[in-house]
Design a protein that fits this description.
heterodimer; A: about 260 residues; Rossmann fold; four-stranded antiparallel sheet; 7 helices; about 40% helix; B: about 270 residues; mainly alpha; MetI-like fold; about 0% strand; binds adenosine-5'-triphosphate; binds magnesium ion; ATP-binding (chain A); ATP hydrolysis activity (chain A); P-loop_NTPase (chain A); AAA+_ATPase (chain A); transport (chain A)
């Protein structure tokens, strides 16, 4: 018996705009078991963020339902910690205050809060930066703080929207490895949006490939490679080639659509 | 060393101007009433800065005695008007600005009125201020409050409206209520704008206080230089003007230091 954590059922999302309606999501059907690491993969504009935001509770789907732990999602909540590509750290708070923000809101006692913050600073290698403001940190460090801020509330589910998209290749790899380490320790459910095929294969138990407008699920596949995965291995590259074909087809439709839109302007 | 030399270089022009001015005065190019010599101005300034009574420990503390001279007394009067007028103006503008910034309904309701009133210079309210409040401190405070009200209001509205929605989303995601978001996200995120508005507001207050003192009250630096004009004491007028300049510089330096301290997290301010 699988323990279903997220259940996405016939979800559609239509954005009304002056230039006509945009069907961002159409009849998305997907169940995520507890503890699974899922990657949503697809070209720009295929609706990955829209789906993630719907799970987070930022936007209601125009049709269908999303339940987390059997409860219908209608608003954002700390049980679904979100990590944004733009970090979204509060620039007026130092690293420690940022990490403690969710705990402040929960009204956790000061000493207990400090213990959690200290543990996370240590876990993410941030101890030397606790008093720094976000603007004095590199991109990689900022994203570590954002991850720690979410982990502080120990949510059963983490939603990550291209969290490493703005980082250089080396920093990216080290954060991926760190994320996998954290995930192995806590076994949280993770929904991770990316448009990097390699990142998806490196991280995920399962990859959901999406189509471009309307956003539907094109392929839902299990990555059956032992971890740590070696991006140079033949099996890794076979999968990469297969996925590249799927994604490229959507990529072309996406850039065609964008060219047409540009021509209209 | 470079710092010292740049200070010295910066001093060249002012010193040169003063020397030429002194030479022209001594040559009798201007009458003392038209343009007194720098030395006469300096002498007047020293005189006006000095306490009127000799020091008497039984009457006051040394510090109070030290600032009991005419100009120190006037400067204190002007400064306290600026601060209280600013406190009233900013104290009203801040809550209204926060409301207008957060609520589209209140914004649509209030904005036309704000836009109509805002371009009227506070000085233009002088006749009305006298009709309403008579003479004395009340009309002065009204004008100063008015002068600081709009800069703070407009900047607060703009500050709240420019808060990046990603912070709001992050805060909601972490479980923050609307009240918490307002207090811990919107307020700090808009503080660079609000503080910039406060700085403009206090600058305006300082301009207005000098004008207000010329018409409504009988102390303060504005009153003092107008009084000196009646006796054609041009040296005292200029000494008073320089004191006004020094006070303005003091206020702005303090405001700017405070700004830098409060916004030390903010991009664009050196640490
Ligand atoms: N608020 C909105 N109003 C109108 N259209 C929207 C809105 N948000 C998203 N869209 C459209 O919906 C589609 C899906 O957008 P979404 O941001 O989910 O894509 P994405 O897969 O996350 O892309 P990217 O990789 O660029 O982040 C896009 O075509 C976008 O233009
Ligand atoms: Mg996106």
């Amino acid at each position: 018996m699988v323990d279903t954590h997220i259940s996405i059922s016939h979800v559609g999302m239509v954005f009304r705009s002056s230039g006509g309606d945009v069907v961002a999501l159409d009849d998305i059907q997907c169940d995520v078991p507890r503890g699974e690491f899922v990657c949503l993969l697809g070209p720009s504009g295929c609706g990955k963020s829209t789906l993630l935001n719907a799970i987070a509770g930022f936007a209601r789907p125009t049709s269908g339902t999303i339940t987390v732990d059997g409860r219908l999602i209608s608003a954002p909540g700390p049980d679904r910690g979100m990590v944004f590509q733009e970090y979204a750290l509060f620039p007026w708070m130092n690293v420690e205050r940022n990490i403690a923000f969710g705990l402040d809101i929960k009204g956790i006692a000061a000493d207990q809060k400090q213990a959690v913050v200290d543990r996370l600073l240590d876990k993410l290698g941030l101890s030397d930066f606790r008093d720094r403001f976000p603007r004095d940190l590199s991109g990689g460090m900022r994203q570590r703080v954002a991850i720690a801020r979410v982990l502080a509330l120990d949510p059963p589910l983490m939603l990550m929207d291209e969290p490493f998209g703005a980082l250089d290749a080396l920093t990216r790899r080290s954060l991926q490895t760190e994320l996998l380490r954290i995930w192995t320790e806590d076994r949280k459910t993770i929904v991770f949006v990316t448009h990097s095929i390699e990142e998806a294969i490196y991280l995920a138990d399962r990859i959901v490939v999406m189509t471009y407008r309307p956003g539907t699920i094109k392929r839902d596949l299990v990555v059956d490679l032992p971890r740590p995965r070696d991006p140079a291995s033949p099996a890794f590259n076979d999968l990469k080639r297969d996925l590249a074909e799927l994604v490229m087809a959507e990529q072309e439709r996406s850039s065609d659509a964008e060219r047409r839109a540009a021509a209209v302007d | 060393m470079t710092r010292l030399s740049s200070v010295l270089r910066g001093a060249i022009m002012p010193v040169l101007v003063v020397i030429i001015w002194e030479i022209l005065s001594r040559a009798g190019v201007f009458s003392a009433a038209f343009l007194p010599s720098p030395l006469a101005v300096a002498a007047r300034w020293v005189q006006a800065m000095q306490p009127l009574q000799p020091f008497n420990p039984s009457e006051s503390s040394y510090l109070v005695w030290l600032v009991s001279g005419e100009f120190p007394h006037d400067a204190a009067a002007s400064l306290s008007r600026v601060l209280s007028g600013f406190a009233i103006g900013a104290g009203l503008a801040l809550p209204l600005g926060l409301l207008m910034g957060t609520s589209q309904r209140i914004y649509t309701l209030m904005n036309p009125l704000v836009q109509i009133l805002r371009p009227i210079p506070p000085i233009a309210y002088i006749p009305l201020a006298i009709v309403w409040f008579g003479l004395g401190n009340a009309p002065a405070l009204f004008l100063i409050a008015l002068g600081s009200f709009f800069p703070v209001l407009v900047n607060t509205i703009a500050g709240v409206r420019q808060v990046d929605s990603i912070y709001l989303r992050a805060a909601r995601n972490l479980g923050a209520s609307s009240m918490t978001i307002f207090r811990r996200v919107i307020l700090p995120a808009s503080s660079p704008f609000i503080l910039a508005g406060a700085r403009i507001g206090i600058g305006t207050a300082f301009i207005v206080v000098i004008v207000a003192e010329m018409i409504a009250v009988s102390d303060g630096l504005g009153y003092r230089i107008l009084e000196a004009r009646e006796y054609l004491w041009s040296d005292k007028i200029i000494a008073g003007m320089l004191t006004i300049g020094a006070l303005g510089l003091l206020i702005d330096t303090f405001a700017s230091r405070l700004n830098d301290y409060l916004l030390r997290w903010h991009r664009g301010i050196g640490t």
